[in-house]
Write a structure and sequence with these properties.
With 409 residues, this protein is mostly beta strands. It contains 3 helices and 30 strands. It has a 6-stranded mixed sheet with strand order 1-30-22-21-20-19, with no helix packed on it. A 4-stranded antiparallel sheet has the order 2-29-28-27, with no helix packed on it. A hairpin with a 5-residue loop joins strand 15 and strand 16. The chain starts with a strand and ends in a 6-residue tail after the last strand. About 3% of the residues have low confidence. Keywords: Repeat, Ubl conjugation pathway, WD repeat.
């Protein structure tokens, strides 16, 4: 089954009035897109009280949320902290991170102060205290730029880093001086990593490797691959709120970008969203990032043409915006929903209002069940076929196409 996600179907749902704020770097680039000025990462803190963005030139801005009116126009508010890292910043991560699906009584460890981890071009990871904007520790070991950072969503201070040195490292920041666990195997740069909501699995993708790596966070061992039949460049990955779906972004110069939803338990490809099939030039539009919303079943994905948000439950686009800003490279949802931030190659950040959608009762039941039960366990239940297909997300169309504005029919 193939369906189309056409821009014209969401026209009028999301426009310039939904732009909440635009943050501009203090020192704009001399030439648009010049190296060193990119906003490679934007992040909200787990409680939603802080917003961090890498504004290029080795500077990270840490702002209190919600923003003041002055924050909305320029960097320079008294409410902000400027972190001078001295190196190009590739990745940001707040921790500890508490999963919305884990009972507070079962969160790991005691209460910790909020930290901001920053991955740098020289392979170092700087850890700062968010409340004071002061450095706490520097982690060394990576031999190349740290491209991604993620804290485990179980309330602990376990940090996973992905690097161009082809390794993942797992750090326990609660144990001073402890050596990290090193995961080796890929032959290419590791671009992105994501941790399942139950903190049991790490997914990682490499730039030129046409497969996804799944690792056990409990035994620190490789588990399995999710393999593509055709050569792909992997761009990003993210788990859904219940861990039952793993979204993968990839692209190729001749076939355009793909956004795939996998079952990480059975390594089954459930559905594929493809770039506009009639565009003449595929290589000018890359899918750069994606992110599942912590509220509902919304999946945001950013390419060079636009920011789009797909309501997976209703199978429709609910957002299609930012058509005038080329070179978007990252996006991140606010933990309470309602807002999404996007970062660009020129150091700008835009904050957009996300449509307020209420999940159905049956989907809320599915999330509660799937958080603690694998696909294999669901399939063993004595339930009708249609219910089993719904619980395992196998009732979705197998293929979709996102048409650009020019070719919307």
């Amino acid at each position: 089954m193939c369906t189309s996600l056409r821009d014209c179907t969401v026209k009028g749902l999301f426009n310039c009035d939904d732009l909440i704020a635009e943050l501009k770097p203090a020192h704009p680039p001399r030439l648009y897109g010049s190296a060193g000025c990119e906003t490679w990462s934007v992040r909200f803190s787990p409680d939603g009280s802080y917003f961090a963005w890498s504004m290029g030139h080795g500077i990270v801005k840490l702002l209190s949320w919600p923003l003041t009116s002055k924050d909305s126009t320029e960097a320079g508010s008294s409410e902000e902290k400027t972190l001078n890292c001295g190196q190009t910043v590739w990745a940001l991560a707040f921790g500890p991170c508490l999963s919305t699906r884990v009972d507070a009584l079962h969160q790991n460890g005691r209460d910790h102060e909020l930290l901001l981890a920053i991955g740098l071009n020289n392979g170092a990871i700087q850890v700062w205290v968010a409340s004071t904007g002061s450095p706490r520790i520097t982690l060394t070991g990576h031999q190349a730029p740290v491209r991604d950072l993620v804290f485990t969503p179980n309330g602990s201070l376990t940090l996973v880093s992905a690097s161009r040195d082809k390794t993942l490292r797992i750090w326990d920041l609660a144990k001073k001086g402890a050596s990290p666990h090193v995961l080796r195997g890929p032959d290419y740069w590791i671009f992105r990593c994501s941790i399942s909501p139950d903190s049991s699995v790490i997914a990682s993708v490499c730039n030129l490797d046409s497969k996804v790596y799944l690792w056990s966070l409990r035994s620190y061992t490789f588990m399995r691959h999710l393999t593509y039949d055709h050569e792909r460049t992997m761009a990003s990955c993210d788990f859904s709120q219940d861990g039952a779906l793993l979204a993968i972004a990839s692209y190729h110069s001749t076939t355009g970008w793909w956004l795939d939803l996998w079952d990480p338990y059975r390594a089954d490809l459930l559905t594929r969203v493809e770039d506009c099939e009639v565009c003449a030039y595929r290589s000018d539009n890359l899918l750069t990032s994606l992110s599942f919303s912590p509220v509902g079943l919304l999946l945001a994905f950013k390419d060079y043409r636009a920011l789009r948000i797909w309501d997976v439950e209703q199978d429709k686009l609910v957002t299609d915006t930012d058509h005038n800003r080329a070179g978007g490279v990252c996006c991140a949802f606010h933990p309470h929903g309602g807002v999404i931030a996007t970062g660009c190659r020129d150091g700008h950040v835009k904050l957009w209002r996300v449509p307020h959608l209420v999940s159905s009762l049956k989907h809320l039941c599915r999330i509660a069940l799937r958080f603690s039960i694998s696909t294999y366990q669901v399939e063993a239940l004595p339930l009708p076929k249609k219910i089993l297909e719904y619980l395992t997300y196998r009732d979705m169309p197998k293929q979709k196409i996102v048409y650009c504005k020019e070719h919307c029919r």
